[in-house]
Amino acid sequence: MLEADLCGRGFTPSWETSGNDGISALGSNIFDVILTDVNLPDINGLELCRQFSANYPDIPVVIMTAFGSMETAIAAIRAGAYDFIIKPVDLDILALSLKRAVNHRTLQEKVNLLSHAIKQTQCFEDLIGESQPMKELFVLLTRIADTDISVLITGESGSGKELCARALHQHSRRAEAPIVTVNCSAIPEALLESELFGHVRGAFTDAKTDRKGLFLEAHGGTLFLDEIGEIPLFLQPKLLRTLEERCVRPVGGNTEIPFDVRIVTATNRDLESAVEEGTFREDLFYRLNVFQLEMPPLRSRGTDILLIAKHFLEYFTCRQEKNVKEISTKVAEKLLAYPWPGNVRELRNAIEHGVVLASYDTIVPEDLPRRICSYQDEPILSGTHNPTELVSMQEVERRYILHVLKTTGGNRTLTAKILKLDRKTLYRKLQLFGVD
After folding, report:
1. Does CATH number 3.40.50.300 belong to domain 132-294?
2. pTM over the 0.85 mark
3. Are 162 and 277 in contact (CB under 8 A)?
4. How far is 76 from 89, CA to CA, in rounded Å?
């Protein structure tokens, strides 16, 4: 009966009617998961589980029994069982348990291969990853690196935009010259003009000497303007003129000085919306956005999360002088399930947190920050069959729109494209949902 049902669910089961026959079958074949009863004609299923766990630790064991007491369940877990199913068996629950067990084994194999995989994985300077979004990014970086085209790097905070800019510089013809970085949101508005364009002596009260400014400091190299979306509106016309004329006039000066730099900018803001709202000049946007690179959010990069986690594990193990060698499979499951709103920066902090708290050579879930260890996603659609727990179509729409908005990092332009809505309709719905 189990074979017939599981075959229809995509499994390829093989069965035996005694424990010893099962042991013999396992010796000559490779299986992804073992399912056993507790009461067998020749051996206790718990003892069988212990043998399997000792001799085949990589194969998860699911135990089923009609005697669903707490003591039996605890005994099964102590024997090394992955899961515990009570008879009469609900075939849907059993199939779900077996699929999870198979996924658990696959993930365990990936965790075991992390040390080797991180050395073999594709990389572009300090950017690492094997996911399709990163492979596509590496191709684009390779094609545009050795040009002087202006590049706008977009993506959520913490996704690695500055690493991308530095990788672009290191593979360009300007690699021997400096890359000068300025965070436009970290400098007070009153000082940003002087910081970018420089000033002459006496231009203002504290201007006691001439200052070149970052455009001239980056001469021959790359100027990286991070958080360009935060540059004040009054300064945008001067920035636009400087970029178009390729000459800079210091504050208080009368002479324009030519410069030769490659401009790379980055933002986590939706600049198209900012243009529509009048907080960012349209002509400046198109001047900066000659070529756009999108840094994918960490949650869309699949098992890249584990590769990056291993990279940080090795780094912080050395820095903290601890002997932490790996992450457990359960930690890997937690890392893959978490949505990472803070992206790579948040993952870095989580692994450092885990290394510091680890009591043994392996990070376990309890070593992670609580928000990651206890995370549970809210489903868009309820899987319940209870009519009283079902929700309205309007609530389903609300959940899905907010899910897409969250997944795009709050990018309303991209959200509207995915939902195939015009932006005014999206804004109206967000107002209806009480979202600013």
Report:
1. yes
2. no
3. no
4. 17
